[in-house]
Amino acid sequence: MIVHVHARIDTGMIRIDSHWRPILLLWFTGVLAAAALGKFASLSPVISADLKLSRVEAGWLVSLIETGGASLGIIAGLLIARLGSRKALLYGMGLLTAGGLIGALIPGLWTPFAARLIESAGYLMVVIAAPSLIATVARPQDQGAALTLWSTFVPAGFAIGMGLSGVLLLFTGWRAVLVVWALLAGAALFAAARTPVVETKSDTRLVWPPLPVWLMCAGFGFYTTLFVGLIAMFPLFLTEQGQSPSVAATVTGLASAATLGGAWGAAQALHRGERARWIALCAGLLVPAALACLIFIGGHALWLAGLIIALNAVSGIGSSLVFARLPNMSPGLNAAAANGVLTQFGAGGSLIGPPLLAAIAGHWGWAALGPAVAIGSVAALGLMTAAEFSRRGQLTHRV
Q1: What percentage of the chain reaches a pLDDT higher than 90?
Q2: 3-state helix/strand/coil string of 121-177
Q3: What sequence ranges are listed for the domain Major facilitator superfamily (MFS) profile (predicted)?
């Protein structure tokens, strides 16, 4: 990503270009929202022991954050288009703050589950509203880089949420950790409320997104099904290959962080033009599929770790290009409606991916995941390509 900075030589101070300040703040709100995914990955063992939760209940406590997007993403996008993305962002951060405080301060076995549902609603509003606002406030020459930056909010937030929560647990209990995250969300809410951002909303009827949006988002659904499923399966695969749980977790964490490198590669491709973008899209989907085939054959620990990290680094290109290209699929349409469709498919894929890939591995063995990922990657590439050509055809027809 390219962020313009200007240096004041007389004072030695460096300030960020004013055009990028609201974009970075919006990205930060997304990171905080995604931290709600990672924090419970660290906290769930402690919460389970404290509240005597079963493994299934602990799993639901982690995954409930995605229920809003998987079930209501499209509807939420259409409604936010009318409500206004700025209002929705503020309401979403407010719900994340309230959910964190309720889960931390109100005792009871089911309180964390209720709080998680509140956070799920807040997360849904933020991840639809924030990129819609970014697409509006970014200058035309910066929009691709700005939305590519936005595409990193999940891996960045997940890593920060997981890591910081783990560190805080060394010094305090899980309830205090939830309070810290709630206060951070409240601080972001205060900062967002004070930042002037152009409102984006529809004044009249609900507008259904056009075909290119659906094709692009369907391709993204295949993408998240595959690569969220893979990141969930890697720890189990590595332990079955003889690695300790700590090593497996470390490799998976590094692989998740490596996705940020793919976002940088996508930004470079967008900067170099259409041909580079097409090459990057093909590489971002097909190279990881080939690496998956190699990984699940098995091998030396360092070899597998390197392949897993490389797979996630390259796969980050695909998601970044989807976020950057989505506004081009629906020019003139309120971006919140398109982002609602993207959220629905993305969250649905995140929920389906881990159990689907686990079922394939359980029935046919680990080696079957390579061909499965290859087939899914080709399907994702086909849908994204169809979206681009469908959009081009609409433009030609209008001319």
Answers
A1: 21
A2: HHHHHHHHHHHHHHHHHCCCCCHHHHHHHHCCHHHHHHHHHHHHHHHHHCCCCHHHH
A3: 22-394
